[in-house]
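Hi everyone, sorry if this is the wrong subforum. Our group has a chain we'd like a structural model of before ordering constructs, and none of us has done structure prediction before. Sequence below.
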Amino acid sequence: MRTIYVCLLLLIASIAFAQDYFQGKNLVCPSNNAEAMRNFNSGIKVLHLNTSLAPKYLAANSELFGRAIIADSTFCDAYFFAGYTLSLQKQYKEAFVFYYAADSMAQNKSLEFKVNLASTSLKVGLIDIARTKYNELIQYFPANAEGYYGYAVTSLMIGDVEDGLKNIDHAMGIYLENARKPGDDSYYVKAVLLTLNRRYEESLDLFREVYSTYKKDDNYNLHYALSLLKVSDIKKDEKMKKEALKYYNKIKDKNNIPKEIKDQLAF
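Answer:
Right subforum, don't worry. Here is the predicted structure as tokens:
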């Protein structure tokens, strides 16, 4: 039942990218090696020409960035783009290695490196590393929402839901300060965290807010059903209890419901 958490994290992997950076400008640690830069610039050019993300050209991208790394092993941007093109090919374990190297070399100078490393860590099941990188994002880039948002998503897996709620609220506050309405994913994360924190009634309005986006998602239906059921018990509301059962019955994969939640779903 963790799929949604991974997907939510990946949503933020592209938020922070500056357009100039993807044009090969404003590099974090540019190389003085002519061969490294020649291969790197060729890789950038192929990446922009490959608008359909054709696998054979993505493979060529990875090779060009790999050649840049061979020419200059300290070229952190080449490591990052090698990881990026590998992730586009869904080679997440390999991408993780390059992202990790890029972030280590950058010495906490790049928001983008940490965001992608954190989300890819989660993708390959390295939750502790993901949490570490989100903490580093909060430390080194406190004005950006990504670290707080990522911390909240990892709270869904680690279980420190009170800390998760503080962080999702902080992330949403930053979005609003920047005249940007929080996305449905933020409301969804908060709704699930409220449910896990037994604040069932508070979660209901948020679940309803994102219904059209997540109505087919198993985790949505599971946590919404739980909140509805708990509130129906408190209010002795049979209609709400039937509504809870309706959403529970929408769950396609009931075999993966965590035992601690399944035991509470007594209709």
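For your construct planning: The chain is about 70% helix and 0% strand. Residues 9-16 have pLDDT under 50 and may be disordered.
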